[in-house]
Amino acid sequence: PMKIIIIYCLFALSSLTHVVSAQARFYNVIFSGKNVGSLKVFGNDSKDANTESYKIESKFKLLFYSGTYITESNFEDGKLRAASSAHHVNGNLKGKTLTTSGVKPVYEVKFMGEEAPKVDTKQLHFDINNTVTGLYYKEPIDIKEVYSERYAKMCSVKKLSQNSYGVELPDGKQGVYIYSKGQCSEVQTDLGGFKLRIVLQEDK
After folding, report:
1. What is the mean pLDDT of the chain?
2. Residues ≥6 apart with Cβ < 8 Å to 81
3. For residue 136, which of 195, 172, 178, 168 has the smallest C-alpha distance?
4. Are 138 and 130 contacting, i.e. CB atoms less than 8 angstroms apart?
5. Among residues of the chain, what percentage have pLDDT more than 70?
6. How far is CA 186 from CA 29, 88, 109, 121, in A?
7. CA distances from 38 to 25, 67, 124, 153, 199 (A)
8. Which of 88, 104, 134, 199 is deepest in the core (most CB within 10 A)?
9. Residue spans of beta strands (DSSP E) within 90-163
10. Does residue 90 contact residue 167 with C-beta atoms inside 8 Å?
11. Which of 152, 149, 148, 147 is nearest to 130 (CA)?
């Protein structure tokens, strides 16, 4: 009977862990010590063990510069199936990138908005297993590179210190991701020339 109770408790605990990981998390966007926005990490509540869905949504206001960022990536059997990134500034679409899987291992990428390059479509001839958005969901312990949904390029990941990782972005800047007990607790990034800290709200 005791063995059965222990097994039941372990099962209940694992179920609870899954529920907690599926819940949304909230972050403050901080600039020069002031809260200038918020970021939401949506829960991965997929009922299919073979699929994963990552999504973050950020809103911020800096002086006369206000905007939103939304990125999302969907995986099936560990491979990226679709990704999107949209950036609005003062109500205008600054940039949008859509990545969709085609005939393996080709991805079709389309760029839109004011920042779209002259050649607004391209193909990628390699598999994608991890994305920048996914860094909010899991610590990149054994991950060497991630796909930027915004830039449609691979970015190298380098361990900086214990539970701290640097991501080299295509624009030459580096994002720093810090983890506590496997959960992303802070991100240090540069947005439009502004150095921001994205800090987990502990009370949520």
Report:
1. 86
2. 74, 75, 100, 101
3. 178
4. no
5. 86
6. 10, 23, 30, 33
7. 11, 11, 32, 26, 9
8. 134
9. 92-101, 106-112, 121-125, 145-148, 153-161
10. no
11. 147
Distance CA 121, CA 112 (A): 9
pTM of the model: 0.84
Q: What is the largest CA-CA distance in the chain?
A: 69
Unique residue bearing structure tokens 């830039």: 151
Copy the structure tokens of residue 111: 């760029």
List phi, psi (to 5°) of 20: -60, -45
**Does 2 score more than 80 pLDDT?**
no
Give 47-73 pLDDT, tens digit per residue.
677 899 999 999 999 878 889 999 999
The residues near 115 (Cβ < 8 Å, ≥ 6 apart) are 87, 94, 95
Kind and range of the H or E run holding 157: strand 153-161
Structure-block tokens of residue 147: 């796909």
Whether the per-residue pLDDT at 17 is higher than 50: the answer is no
Q: Mean pLDDT throughout 167-175?
A: 91
Tokens of 139: 């610590």
